[in-house]
Amino acid sequence: MELTLFSIGKAADICSVSTSTLRYYEQNGLITPDHVDEENRYRYYSYETLLRVQTIRYLLDEGFPLSEIREMLQKDDLKTMKSHFAAQITQTEAELRYLKQRLASLNAWHALLVEGDHVLKHNDLSVHTRYLPEHNCFFFRRHPSSEEEQTTAFIETTYYTECKRNGNDLVDLGGSINVYYDSYEDRMDSRVKQLTLFQTMYPDSLSYDNTMTFGGFLAASCYCIGTQQPISQTYQKILDWCCDHRFRLRGDSLERHVLDGYSVIHEENYVTEVLLPIAEEE
User: Fold this and answer.
1) CA angle at residue 159 from 155 to 162, to 5 degrees?
2) Positive or negative: CA dihedral 122, 125, 126, 127
3) At what angle do helices 78-122 and 66-75 cross, to 10 degrees?
4) Are 127 and 241 contacting, i.e. CB atoms less than 8 angstroms apart?
5) Residue 176 has pLDDT above 70, yes or no
6) Closest CA to 73 of 25, 125, 144, 113
7) CA 154, CA 144: separation in Å to the nearest integer?
8) Which residues of 88-100 are buried (b: 16+ CB within 10 A; e: fewer)?
9) What is the sign, positive or negative, of the torsion defined by CA atoms of 243, 245, 250, 251?
10) Do 40 and 71 meet the contact criterion of CB atoms below 8 Å apart?
């Protein structure tokens, strides 16, 4: 029976690809014309070759590189196919994990932008209580020896360096950078001997080293905006409010960097939430 052949233009139309795509597949050893006219060098393709083109397109959509597609088609062996598919599944699962972490990180950062914008627009400097839910965090501790080592820029730069050194993608973490002090009195008097930096860690992170659970308590809270006032004044404002409302404090403190150098350029637009944990009733 005579073989039905199609010109390169007709073949491209049937397969819904361009003629340059068919030539590209040929150059990469994926297909060969079933007939080439000796006089004009026109290429012609059979139904079997058109099916091969669609197989190539399918495998490309599945994420396989041309080199692997060529190997699978040339060997025509199920063992080879299964091996490549298993590897592609593993790679795709890793990509999905990364994209899932990225989405969580994007949502958390966006939430900080919304929160910070609200604080700036309304100049929200009121004191109130709020509950911090328990969550898993990546952390590391520092012993700052100078004023420079207590600046936001220094703290966050060293934090992210430590995060990468620990084996995490940055998208494994999200939300505000938090700085925890064992004593709010030492923080107010610039006598800090140790601080702990932490950030929310998402499930399926690359590494779970240096993790801790934080939260699960009520705290007195107040925002500090840029350079409007020293942060020690925000601490004092919270202390006075707690005294008026007869709240007993644990003695530690937390500073959430809502808006910082990662989101805004000018320090006057920085937003930091100061939180003083409230002691549990005995």
Assistant:
1) 140
2) positive
3) 160
4) yes
5) yes
6) 25
7) 10
8) beeeeeeeebeee
9) negative
10) no
Rama region for 76: left / alpha / beta (φ>0; ψ in -120 to 50; rest): left
Q: Alpha-carbon distance 186 to 231, whole Å?
A: 13
3-class DSSP state for residue 166?
coil
- Alpha helix (H) ranges present in the chain? 8-15, 19-27, 47-61, 66-75, 78-122, 152-165, 184-188, 231-244
DSSP 182: S
pLDDT digits (tens, 9 = 90+) for 123-140: 999 999 999 999 999 888
Read out DSSP for 200-233?
EE-TT-S--TTEEEE--EEEEEEEEETTSS-HHH
Instruction: HSE, CB side, 13 Å, CA atoms: give it for residue 163.
Output: 23
Which residue type, as a one-letter code, is found at position 237? K
Residues 156 and 178: their CA atoms lie apart, in Å, by: 10
CB 61 within 8 A of CB 70: no
Q: Which of 207, 212, 195, 134 is nearest to 171 (CA)?
A: 207
Check: CB of residue 72 under 8 Å from CB of residue 78: no
> Which distant-in-sequence residues (6+ apart) come within 8 Å of 95 by Cβ?
none
- Express each pLDDT in 78-114 by its tens digit: 999 999 999 999 999 999 998 999 999 999 999 999 9
If you compute the radius of gyration of the chain from its CA atoms, what whole number of angstroms results? 30
Which of 212, 257, 213, 206 lies closest to 101, judged by CA? 206
The structure's pTM equals 0.80
